[in-house]
Amino acid sequence: MAKEKKRKAAEEAVDGDDYIEREDKKPKKQKLILASQIKNKEKRSAVYAKLKHEKRVEKHKKIKARDAASKQALELGEEPPEKMVPRTIENTRELDETVCRPDDEELFAGNDADEFSAVLKQQTAPKVLITTCRFNSSRGPAFIKELLSVIPNAQYYKRGTYELKKIVEYAKNKEFTSIIVVHTNRREPDALLLIGLPDGPTAHFRLSNLVLRKDIKNHGNPTSHEPELVLNNFTTRLGHRVGRMIQSLFPQVPNFRGRRVVTFHNQRDFIFFRHHRYVFEVKEKKEGLKDKKSKASQGKTEKKAIARLQECGPRFTLKLVSLQHGTFDTKGGEFEWVHKADMDTSRRRFFI
Amino acid sequence: MQNDDVIWDVIRHHHCSYMAKIQTGNFCRNPYNVTGICNRSSCPLANSRYATIRDHDGIFYLYMKTIERAHMPNKLWERVKLPKNYMKALEIIDKHLEYWPKLLVHKIKQRLTKMTQYRIRMVKLSKKVREKIMTVPRKEVKRESRREEKALRAAQIENVIEKELLERLNKGVYPDICNYDEEIFNKLLDKNKEEEQEEEEEEEAEVEYVEGDYELEEEEELEEDIEDMGDFLKANNFEDIEGDEDDLEEQPAKKKAYVSYPLKQDDGTEKVRRKGKKVVVEVERDEDMGNRQHNVM
Q: In this protein, which residues make up the domain named Brix (chain A) (predicted)?
């Protein structure tokens, strides 16, 4: 009897007539149970897996729909829907007023008048003096050896206990164009000091992630041809200056037969150094193999020119700590740019 | 009432707060002590007539105390400034401490000697430049390394370098690279110029393409190009025409000393999707194709 009653009650409840009754009662709250609240591990992981699967399926659907739409649009000759550009830190970088513009007269005038113009205009050949801090140990000497092979016309002098200012004078007398000081900390090369001569700026870089040639798999051995330089992403005025400083280390007439390229790539204020030997090759790409449906396009081979790189030489990253006007003089010198802690507060702001 | 012996008795056998006992002996921390050792003759409290030399800001002063002033602690110590010259300082000490016990005067002169020596050393050291060790908080170190990793991943260095090299090749920077098949390569130069523009569009989205970069290349290349164009013109007929065209196209741009790549000149749409399905869809641009075809003999 009770069952019958219940059934009837249920039936009645389903009827539309009972809506008036329903409204008096509070609507039943739907309990949403988060997957993370399930205590049973098996059940919980099963729920998660299902969720993930669903998400993936949805994503695939979206992508397919997008592809289909664009294909259709192309076939019809219309414009396909706009391709979505992912938002990256580089895209959303804070606007910097000091970014070099292509039509900046001031920039060129500055270039002519700055300290590197002599070297960059090939009036003097670059001559580099490499030395270390007072205590050199462990990876320092190996790194310096590799640096010597990377930078043509570079010489290594032991540090002794000379003051840096005296070293600068000495180098000026011997007509060097720049000094590199490799600073070691805790048995690892830690910082690089780049001093331009005769009265060039002093750039202090922090060195990190050093990988020596012998630690690189399949490394190549560099020749003694003058390398090509690639300097990427030095956008702002400061970056431009640093870029020119780096450029002044290398001879301005690269020997292309040597097929050596030295790259300084700036990304988010980190300057990545790479040293490669390259080769141009013709790559045959068989088009149409991936599109299995169309038989007509089989057998078409497209040839593309590609460049292949073999890494040789060390690999490290630099980060500019300070740029000082004039040769090394921390007490009395004028700093053009110093890294301060409060420059790191924004993740979208870069200076080089 | 001042009795030195009594004072010494009390201090020595009971408690003196200036005494520091270490392995090698007893030392006196009293700033007015001449020798620094806890001794009956060196204790400034237990000697009613006493003198020292103290150093203030690099200037030495002779301090003297006499029993006449023992009841006025405020005015107990009399101070005489000593000149920086060692010999003159000695004379002044002699003058002031003429009738004082010889032992004390001797100790004072010894102290003066030592102090002069270390003053000279300090001055020398301060002139010397020494490295200052700065510490970096660990949080910052970790933050930097994290950011570096992410920057490295965002940089895609190898790809960028390869692209850069190909661009330079297409520009004609390299006069003679001896490892390619000439015919195929020259044909490729054409095709690559078309694809170049496609590539650049993609690049614009990813890599922040740099005016500064161009300029730096330009400086290198300008020299190269000017030299090589000459060679080109003489040597190869085919490349001669190509070279000319490039020259003409680029020279007006070069006068500005900046080359801006032909940005989005196309009216058609092109996509080169690198990852996943490689769908290279080319829409014919009649004008350009026309030009190019002209030159390919």
A: 126-329
How far is A309 from B160, CA to CA, in rounded Å? 11
| A209 touches A316 (CB < 8 A) | yes
Inspect the interface and report whether the beta carbons of A270 and B154 lie closer than 8 Å. no
Which of A314, A323, A302 is CA-nearest to residue A140? A314
How far apart, in whole angstroms, are the C-alpha atoms of residue A144 and residue B82? 53
Secondary structure class of B123 (helix, strand, coil): helix
DSSP tag of A176: -
B256 φ, ψ to 5°? Answer: -75, -10
Asked if A351 reaches chain B (Cβ–Cβ under 8 Å), the answer is no
> Are B188 and A303 inside 8 Å of each other by CB?
yes
Give the B window 148-167 contacts with A, CB below 8 Å: 148, 150-152, 154-155, 157-158, 160-162, 164-166
The answer to whether the CB of A256 falls within 8 A of the CB of B177 is yes
Q: Answer whether B204 touches A (CB < 8 Å).
A: no
User: Any CB–CB contact under 8 A between A102 and chain B?
Assistant: yes
Nearest to A253 among B150, B214, B223 (CB): B223
Q: Is the peptide bond before A126 cis (omega within 30 degrees of 0)?
A: no
Residue A107, phi then psi, degrees to nearest 5 = -60, -45
Interface predicted TM-score of the whole assembly (ipTM), two decimals: 0.77
Closest CB to A317 among B140, B148, B257? B148
Give the nearest chain B residue to A206 (CA atoms).
B144
The per-residue pLDDT string of chain A (352 residues; one tens digit each, 9 = 90 and over) reads: 556 565 655 555 555 454 455 455 555 566 788 888 999 999 999 999 999 999 999 999 999 998 888 888 888 877 777 778 889 998 899 888 888 888 878 888 888 888 888 888 878 889 999 999 888 878 888 999 999 999 989 999 998 888 888 999 999 999 999 999 999 888 889 899 999 987 889 999 999 999 999 999 889 888 888 999 999 999 898 999 999 999 999 998 888 888 899 999 999 999 999 999 998 888 887 665 444 444 444 556 777 788 889 999 899 999 999 999 988 888 888 999 999 988 888 889 998 8
- Spatial contact of A182 and A130, defined as CB atoms under 8 Å apart: yes
Q: Which residues 236-295 of B have a C-beta within 8 angstroms of A?
A: 256-258, 260, 269, 271, 277-281
Distance in angstroms (rounded) separating the CA atoms of residues A139 and A132: 12
Decide: A99 and A149 in contact? Cβ < 8 Å.
no
Substitution target in B149, B163, B216, B266 with the highest count of A β-carbons within 10 Å is B216
Residues of B in contact with A108 (CB under 8 A): 257
